Every structure is written in structure tokens, then in C-alpha cells.
């Protein structure tokens, strides 16, 4: 069997960053854009509108990667079983905790880290990540992130993302910007099917219809 293709543009990207403890470029950014004081980004808002239309039910679970101002949890937590969130910015975690939203837990955890599979014990119908590759440090950790996501997705579960967030990279490195075609290719590697839900909001979906592990 031939190996699934990689994204050609990644050829020049670092294979392994060797930062096994703190992978991802946002973990040592000195001046972080404080999203607590900002409106939800346009791309995040579009994903939330799609989520609204998909109408997650009372037995469903959501993982929000990059919680920012926690508005997603404020909007959806009362309608679903639980929302877990990830951030690498401590004030976001402290703010999320101060909201005391029932069923909402924010972990200080990198989506690229191997600790993910020890810390995340729930399985999700939806993983929301508007910045899929924006903070990627190397191919190894980008692929580890996708592996982490597949590991905790329920059968039929979806990763929702948006073109605007896929266009943005923290170091303005165009090699880490993703197109929809890239999503198709990278999805194939992990058994995920890419589809456009709107002009800019995309899903990577795990096949199946079951409801849990
Ligand atoms: C640009 S903010 C976006 C916030 C929100 N999603 C929005 O669009 O309004 C980036 C978010 O990604 C999170 N983040 C960055 N690198 C991460 C990583 N390696 N693991 C988990 N979260 C990360 C940050 O903590 C922050 O919450």
C-alpha cells in the first residue's frame, strides 16, 4: 500500500522541533494578543454559527481548542452534556474558571502535547479549532495534534475550522497556511473526510454513527 500523500508545501517545514515538553509556537510568545478583551474573531464566530445550525444535543460533548474569551461556552454549555476547553494562556483559563459555567472545564494544555491523551478523558462530537496549523512548530507535532483529535473524537464526530484561521499563522509562515485541498490530503492520512459546510467553514469528519467509545 502506498503512503498517503503529504502536503507538498510542508516539504520545507521542520520535521521535529525537539521541544517535547512545550510544543507549539504559542507556548513561549512573550507578548500575547489578549483575546479576553477582544470580540470573538470572525472565523470563530462563523464556526459558532455553523455549530448553532448543527444543533448539538443534550447528550453531545464539545472540545474547544483555543477558548479565547469563552463566549462559545457561554452560548452552548447549557444545551450540551459538557464543554472542555484548551488554552496555553493562563489568564484565559483563570477567566474561564471565574465564569463558573456548569459543565465547562478549561485545561491549560497544548494540543500538540503527548499529555493530551492523559489529560483529556472525554470523547467529543465536535472539536472546534479555528487555528488548526497557526501555531504549528513542526510536522511531527502537527500530526500529533491530529492524532490527538482523532483519539478523542466520537464516531461521526467533526473537527470544525475556518479558512480565515487557516490562512493566519503566528510567524507569518505561509507554509503553515492551509487550503481546503490541504485539509482533504491531511484528513486522508488520519481517516478523516473533509467537506465544506459553508464557503469558509470546513469539517473533518470521522466516519461512523456511533455515540462513544
Ligand atoms: C488567536 S487566539 C483565538 C481565540 C478564539 N479561538 C477566537 O478565535 O476568538 C488563539 C487561542 O489558541 C490557543 N492556543 C495557541 N496555541 C495552542 C496550543 N498549542 N494548544 C492549545 N491552545 C493553543 C491560545 O491559548 C488562544 O486561546
Give a verbal description of the structure.
- With 213 residues, the protein is an alpha/beta fold.
- The protein has a single domain, classed as Vaccinia Virus protein VP39 (Rossmann fold).
- 29% of the residues lie in helices and 19% in strands.
- The protein has helices spanning 42-54, 71-76, 90-99, 116-119, 139-152, 163-167, 180-189, and strands at 61-65, 82-87, 104-108, 124-128, 153-162, 193-196, 201-205.
- The chain has a seven-stranded mixed beta sheet with strand order 3-2-1-4-5-7-6.
- The longest helix has 14 residues, at 139-152.
- Mean pLDDT is 88; it is low at 1-5.
- S-adenosylmethionine binds at residues 24, 26, 35, 40-41, 44, 65-68, 86-89, 92, 110-112, 130-131, 135.
Walk me through the topology.
Elements: H1 42-54, E1 61-65, H2 71-76, E2 82-87, H3 90-99, E3 104-108, H4 116-119, E4 124-128, H5 139-152, E5 153-162, H6 163-167, H7 180-189, E6 193-196, E7 201-205
Parallel strand pairs: 1-2, 1-4, 2-3, 4-5
Antiparallel strand pairs: 5-7, 6-7
Amino acid at each position: 500500500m502506498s503512503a498517503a500523500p503529504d502536503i507538498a508545501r510542508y516539504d520545507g517545514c521542520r520535521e521535529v522541533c525537539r521541544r517535547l515538553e512545550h510544543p507549539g509556537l504559542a507556548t513561549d510568545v512573550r507578548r500575547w494578543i489578549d483575546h479576553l478583551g477582544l470580540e470573538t474573531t470572525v472565523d470563530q464566530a462563523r464556526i459558532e454559527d455553523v455549530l448553532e445550525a448543527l444543533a448539538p444535543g443534550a447528550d453531545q460533548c464539545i472540545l474547544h481548542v483555543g477558548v479565547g474569551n469563552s463566549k462559545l461556552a457561554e452560548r452552548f454549555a447549557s444545551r450540551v452534556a459538557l464543554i472542555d476547553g484548551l488554552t496555553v494562556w493562563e489568564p484565559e483559563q483563570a477567566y474561564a474558571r471565574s465564569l463558573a459555567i456548569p459543565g465547562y472545564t478549561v485545561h491549560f494544555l497544548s494540543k500538540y502535547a503527548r499529555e493530551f491523551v492523559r489529560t483529556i478523558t472525554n470523547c467529543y462530537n465536535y472539536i472546534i479549532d479555528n487555528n488548526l496549523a497557526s501555531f504549528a512548530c513542526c510536522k511531527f507535532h502537527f500530526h500529533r495534534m491530529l492524532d490527538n483529535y482523532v483519539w478523542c473524537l466520537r464516531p461521526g464526530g467533526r473537527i470544525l475550522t475556518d479558512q480565515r484561521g487557516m490562512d493566519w499563522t503566528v510567524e507569518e509562515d505561509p507554509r503553515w497556511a492551509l487550503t481546503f485541498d490541504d485539509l482533504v490530503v491531511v484528513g486522508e492520512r488520519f481517516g478523516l473526510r473533509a467537506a465544506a459546510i459553508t464557503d469558509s467553514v470546513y469539517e473533518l469528519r470521522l466516519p461512523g454513527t456511533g455515540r462513544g467509545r
